[in-house]
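S1.2 Input.
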Amino acid sequence: MGVSLQKLKNTALFNMLLRVRTRLTLKATLLAAAIFFAFMPTVSQAYVYPATPSFGSGFSEPYPSPEWSLSALRGWIPVAPGKQGQGDHPLCASATDPHCANVASILADLIIPPCYSDADRICIEGLEIGAEGKPLEKTVLDHELTTKKTPADVKLGLPAGGSASLWNAPSVAHQGNSLSYAVIVSAGYNIDKKAPANSQKFEAIRFEAKVVPVNIKKGGYCGYEIFEVADDGYGFGEVNTSSRMVGEGCKYSEYKECILTEKGSCAAPAEFLPNSRVALTLRMDSKVTGWLFGRMKDVDVAITAIDTKNNKLRVEATSVNLLSGTAWVAKKDLINYPDLYAYMKKNWFIGDGKFEEGLNKTGSSWGDLMPTGTFDQFKVWEQLIKPNPEDNWRWNFASSNNNNANGTNCFAQAGKDKLIGLVTTNAPIYDSGAPAFKDGALSYKVAGLHFKADGSVFKGSYDLAIRSDVARCLYGFSNAPIRASVSVLSSDGSTQDVASELVTEKNGWMTLSAKNFTFSQPTIKVKLLQDKPVNSDTETSKQAAPVTKTIIKVKIINCVKGKTTKKVSGSNPKCPTGYKQK
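S1.3 Output.
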């Protein structure tokens, strides 16, 4: 709050966030990743400040802005002892650039390019689009944007950095009446340059894939580039990186709705057709391990090995319509919301003790509710948040390599070299970590508003895809079929009835879903069940036991009643009532 967004985007504080995320927990890592893309709000959340000095907050699913879809290598030199600052962040032309010879580490933010040949690796192989209930159709690559690339370093395990790409569907137009779709796949790698030379390797630390319907607009647009600045302007005299437009005649005012730009054109985001089906196929480094998280539903995941170092990852799923909301409270009225007042005072610039000064200043400030893990912040703002009416159809997923959040050996061991699972939800706020395995259930927390803008109840969706061998490891299951029990625990402790699907299992993955649950802060619990296997030793002994035959002797007697005679047979026959044995 109170920090210029443009200054944060282009100078040292932002790059500090990029640097810090290489050493954070999974929750903080994905929060930093969310911050990375949090600077292009949706229309209703465009920071239109009220006339009265106020504090504001809200949530939306932000689009990336053009300068963030660029590949770059940034070094890091720690602050010298006894000095203040964030350290130097020089721009590296390559992993072995002499300009970065003295750095402690290098962070590579890479945009993954399309595949151009069968031999290409770490690339986008294909995109398929389908309208609701219709078959998927393969799109055709239009082109990869023209931006500065970063070179690969095979010896150090660094892939090449490319640019975002535009793809055209043969017939499936989105709500913008265009056939164009942007694919932005980013990956982060980090190398410790202070480690022994023979052990220095780039390690994958993050991964994100977005498919966005776009309309291509022509005008005074230019592309962006990352460049180095000698002084970041924060008073520490430190080297850092920034971004700028490249070319002549660039009109910045036209960029507010662009997610990608190049000379003379802009890709402006549009909406998917409701419940569009999307499939993205990637050739990815097998170092990208752990869990995937996404904005989609009805997920189908397939991973196959291409070679010893690379996998083919295909994610097919339906787009989801996300709820967004906005809240404002006048500074003079904040005292009427004691929980919100206490929260803001505690967290005002990390508790610098100047909150009251901020209350007395004119002007307004805004603070986003990040989608990952901000449950406490959501709780204090919830009563003031008003849902926005517009559609917000999204399709994206991301991963992280931190697999120890659950403390289970099954997750930790599997996550060392393979993707474990995929969790997706339409909840505005969600747990950034893998589902917690406790008391025999996988638990996952989400949060959101109870009602939509039109007054109808906002219904949640949750999908879990998990590798079969990991699920069986967790529960000690055999290879027999598995059933699922899905429950949604509301914040008041009651259990909601939800529409859940049975577990499906194919291609080494189990998938299940929970639909139509309500908010504000429910916890989803998934239990996998399996009938106890028959004890094979007992069964065998039963089959091997000798069969004893019993011979039963049958007697026949004659029974008489008057002139009527009956024959009765059996092991111990008796005459019916009224009859006498003859």
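S1.4 Remarks. DSSP finds nine helices and 38 strands in the chain.
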